[in-house]
From TrEMBL:
Residues 201-249 form a coiled coil. This is Uncharacterized protein. InterPro entries: Probable_transposase_24 (IPR004252). Residues 87-127 are annotated as: Disordered. The lineage of its organism: Eukaryota, Viridiplantae, Streptophyta, Embryophyta, Tracheophyta. Residues 87-101 have a biased composition (Polar residues).
Amino acid sequence: MRKASKEHAYDHVKRVFHYEDDKKGWIKLGILQRIGSCWRNSRNHLFHKVYDEELTFEQNIKRKPARIEANHWKKFLQYRRSVEKNTVNRSKQQYTHTGSSKMMARKRHEEGRPIGRGEGWTMSHKKKNGKYMNEEARLVGEAIELIESQDPSSKEFSQNDSLAQVLGKEHPGRVCGLGIGTCPSRCFRNIPEQSDYGVQIEEYQMEIVKLKVEAAELKAEAAELKTAAAEEKAKRQRMETEVVEEKAKIQTMGNLLTYVIQQQGGNLPPEIVADLDSLRSAPTSSHAR
């Protein structure tokens, strides 16, 4: 019963029965609870009194009591049929859980750490005292705990985690342990199965070895280029040293020749002076090589 409807009924009661309510509102609360209980019991009594299970839904609609609108009666029957159907479905459940509509994200937030499907399943099928709801839930929970103790990787969310190993393959359109609105194609789209991990690890290892070999080859080539560059630099330095030494020799020879001629009281002929100048400025034979 909606809150507005309860308040409306309470106003009618207050007009008929005069009383002084206390400050905490306990009397009003009690009256509202009685109104809700009477409303619920009257609906239940009306349904079982008028509704005939042997008749069809359309035939039961025609059995509408007086003073009830046809549209309201139809909606009431639809609601009661859905309630009966949900009751039957709940009776078929093997594992009664205590998690209500709490999602895995909320559980992780409350725990403050990552929670796998297996651990989430066991948490939502235990009572406050730590015991499982029934024998079937206990068997499944103990199997999950055993698998996770033997294989810690089964705690991680995947198509082959501890919960999947115990309960089997997922049904199309839903994922066990994740609530309403999830499907395998969306949840496991980018998560490989546990059986594929070994193959992927081998592929990664082969790729790493290949990259290491290529890196070693590049390192060797870089060392060879560095050695060749060092040799070329040393050769160039030797050639430059030889050029400087030959220029110094030519300069010394020219100075000696000039000195000898001057001691004899003469000067060098212009053509010899020109030849000496050209020798000083021209590159040596070793430099030309």
